[in-house]
Amino acid sequence: MSAPPSVFVPAGDGQDPEEMVRAALATVDAFTDRFNARDLAGMDALLHFPHVILSGESLVVWDRPGRMPAGFFDDLAATTGWHHTAYVEKRPVLVNARKVHLFVDYTRNRADGTVITRHQNLWIVTLDGGRWGIKQRSY
What we know:
With 139 residues, this protein is α+β, with helices and mostly antiparallel strands.
């Protein structure tokens, strides 16, 4: 049997796993800061494209920045009372060649801090082109 193709066994590059986790967590925190600031361009700057979203069984692929609807935050605030998002937990579940899989547990909150909804997701943060960015989110 021959060796498996590199797509199934990506080559490592000797990066420190703890530093990779720190970088991935900082990327997620920066993304959420921009999310809370309603900064669509700032959010896009922290994603890698194509960007993959698995929502339930539906697969969405954003091929470029600018795919988040312009009225997303106004709609979210109007329909739910959303003011900000806060983390309950962010935990690495897999660290390997230039990527970190994170379990993220967060709440959507009103201005007074009361919780509207709680979400638990898997996000994959990758080092691509010399920068860390969120490549995939599973909701």
